[in-house]
Amino acid sequence: AGDELEMSSAEGLAEALYEMLQLVASVAFRGDEEAMSLGAIVRRARAHLGLAVDEVHFHPSIPARKLQGAMSVHASRLLPGESVAVLYDDTLLGSGADGWIITPFRLAWRNTFEGASQLKWTQLDPSRVEVVEGAVVVHGEEISMVKDELAPGVVSLLQELATLSRMRGGG
């Protein structure tokens, strides 16, 4: 009986902790009009980018190693608990440290041998996202991609997400 009581106490503590973390996350995001749902972003990304691209990963199936690599680069720019909806890995060895991520709040990227950058959806002007010589260019900054055939789909996805953010009152 003592073991059962100890187990139920541990389970209760785990549930309470989970609920507390959910509450903290909801308070952190409350009132932030720019947030879009992960599911909506993933559906749009799959429509624009397709399903069978080795370098593109969608929530909730982003490999842990790649997500950890991307988060090590972008964590200081993200809100606590901010989830990644889409990850493009532009690294040779698959670490996820170079490439781009899309979250409900922003686009973040890092090109090889460069510093990390990000734009919130509210800051991203859809008319300043384009394909230039096979590369994605956002507000005059190139986002390098080995898979340059994805550039038109990436541009149309970013333009759509930025437009949706503006329509929701985020920009």
Summarize the structure.
The protein is an alpha+beta fold and 171 residues long.
Outline the structure in words.
- By secondary structure, the protein is an alpha+beta fold.
- Helix content is 40%, strand content 19%.
- It is built from four helices and eight strands; from the N terminus they run ααβαβββββββα.
- The strands form two sheets. It has a five-stranded antiparallel sheet, with helices on both faces.
- 28% of the residues are buried.
Helical element count?
4
**Which value, in Å, is the CA radius of gyration?**
18 Å
Helix content: 25-40%
Low-confidence parts, pLDDT < 50 over ≥5 residues? 20-34
For the sheet with most strands, the description reads:
5 strands, antiparallel
Average pLDDT, all residues = 84
Shape: globular
How much of the sequence is in beta strands? 15-25%
Order of helices and strands: HHEHEEEEEEEH
| Number of DSSP E strands | 8
Task: Give the N-terminus to C-terminus distance in angstroms.
Answer: 58 Å
